[in-house]
Amino acid sequence: MKRAAMSKVKRVLPAATVIAILIAIWWLMVVVTQSAIFPTPWQVMTGTLELARNGTLWADIGASLMRVGLGFSLAVCIAVPLGLWMGWVRGAFSTLNPIFQILRPISPIAWIPIAILWFGVGDASPIFLIFMSSVFPMVVQTTAGVHTIEQRYLRAAENFGVSRYTLFSRVIIPAVLPQIIVGMRIGLGVAWLVVVAAEMIALRSGLGYLIIDSRNAGNRYDLVVAGMVIIGLTGLLLDGAMRRLERLKTVRWRYAR
Q1: Beta-carbon neighbour count of residue 236 at 10 Å?
Q2: Distance of alpha carbon 127 from alpha carbon 136, whole angstroms
Q3: To bridge 75 with a disulfide, which of 32, 120, 127, 135 should be the other Cys (CB 3.0-4.6 Å)?
């Protein structure tokens, strides 16, 4: 137990040290420049506690997570089956891939006027934007995962005379899972970025709105920076949750020795 605890401390210590140094530099720069607007780390902490006490913080985090959860879940339900189909069926890939490659480079932010036009100002617009931003990375990664399956797996399945359903459920899908998880990590990161941008423009709740509202309501830059820090920490937690999926035996069997 002690060795495990020490190992965890050794892994966390470098990052914690760098963060502490950056906070110290931030505090020093504010003091040296005698800025009357930009907050110190302590002011940001007190602002965060203020938001937590009045309930604004939890309401805005919940609103942003709800939108991301709905849009991202919809993207997963569509992107994974579509990517498997495109990776396995040559005709589907040659037909749909050019369309995806045209749409994929378009910034999700560019879809904001279209989203407002189609869905109005409400939760549907950011959910649509999240879907558009996260579906393409997952489709691309899933398709690439199918294309990179080692032929020895498929030949072994053919030698045993397995059915198409068994081939997909016992060979192809487990082999593609690592690539699917990578696509989900990328898609979730982009989705979290996009929902904040959408909330700054089209909504009156969420962490993005919190930042803009704090800026407009008396230049509360302590709350602005607090919102930024909360966005970063929440994104870190979401990415950590996705990384835990990579440790599952079902995901790692392709790389077993």
Answers
A1: 10
A2: 15
A3: 135
Single-letter amino acid code for the residue at 58: W
Return d(Cα 67, Cα 129) in angstroms, integer.
Answer: 10
Q: How far is CA 239 from the centre of its chain?
A: 7
**Residues 187/133, Cβ–Cβ less than 8 Å:** yes
* Tens-place pLDDT, residues 6-24: 667 677 788 888 898 999 9
- How far apart (Å, rounded) are the C-alpha atoms in residues 241 and 9? 20
- Nearest to residue 72, comparing CAs of 7, 20, 167, 137? 137
Give the model confidence (pLDDT) of 41-89 as tens digits: 899 999 899 889 988 889 999 999 999 999 999 999 999 999 999 988 8
pLDDT of residue 151: 72
**How far apart, in whole angstroms, are the C-alpha atoms of residue 55 and residue 52?**
5
Q: Tokens 């109005």 sit at which residue?
A: 120
Q: What number of other Cβ atoms are within 10 A of residue 83's Cβ? A: 27
